Amino acid sequence: MFGTMISNMMVKPGQSPLFDNPEDHGLEYENVEFKTEDGVTLRGWLINGGSDKVIVQTHFGVQCNRGGWTPKGHGPITPWKQDIQFLRQAKYLVGQGYSVLMYDMRGHGESDLGPIPWVSWGPEEAKDVIAAVDFVTARFPDASIGLLSICMGAASTTYAYGRDNGLATRPNIKAIVAVQPLLYTCFVEALGMPGFMTRAGEKVSEKRLGFDMGAPNFIDDAPKISVPTLVVQNSNDPWTKMGMVEDYFQALGVEKELKLLDLEKSRFAAYDYIGAHPDDVMGWFDKFV
């Protein structure tokens, strides 16, 4: 029982119904869908910024979707008290002359499940990032692309650089903003769950996914990232290990910057910050995209 409960918390898909819409933010958009290399249909919004400079936003995992995160439906105890609307940063980016692709990763929002019908924390979702970049490239052959990759989105993007025929072979990608990349093992350690509960959950998740969640390590793929990368991290985040963030940053072999935020003691504070203060983060794209 404990194992299933813990595994559901970590890898159960479909916990994030879509709650926001570009129309409510005055944005011109179209609903789009595209397929991954393994045949999964992903759905999203292509928001018109009037140019073929395109930011591809990849959200964080499990309880999130392309629109962001809402506390509704998660009970009285939540890590953040209000909606985190990713369309705020999209609106800012449109104002700066970018078009924006916001899409749901497999098992999230309105996208389909993958052949492995669970959230893998990046190894499977890496295929989604590649498909999103290829979709933009097909629509805008001369596109200059920036990747805004949040938490599991940052992990997925990094894994996508490590794949054969992955993002390293897409020369139209010009820059990355990686917000709070997180290894599964660091998250579990930071939660401080009793060992027997952790082990029980990992046993169930391994049966579901077909691999040990503690084994994949996207830091191993960080040296394969080939474009300037800004790493954004709340230094007061209680759900990570700052040493892991530093290891990721040091593994990057490109022009890079580590932006440490001094926010309240919540991981979600940084997710909210990028929408509340987009000018403080998105300038990285202005330099390179």
Observed structural traits:
9 helices; eight-stranded mixed sheet; 10 strands; single chain; Rossmann fold; alpha/beta; 289 residues; two-stranded antiparallel ribbon
Describe what you observe in this structure:
With 289 residues, this protein is an alpha/beta fold. It has a single domain (2-288), classed as Alpha/Beta hydrolase fold, catalytic domain (Rossmann fold, 3-Layer(aba) Sandwich), CATH 3.40.50. It has helices at 2-11, 87-95, 126-139, 152-162, 184-191, 195-209, 242-251, 268-276, 283-288, and strands at 29-35, 41-47, 53-58, 68-69, 84-85, 99-103, 144-150, 173-179, 229-234, 256-261. The strands form two sheets. Strands 1-2-6-3-7-8-9-10 form an eight-stranded mixed sheet, sandwiched between helices. It has a two-stranded antiparallel ribbon with strand order 4-5. It is globular.
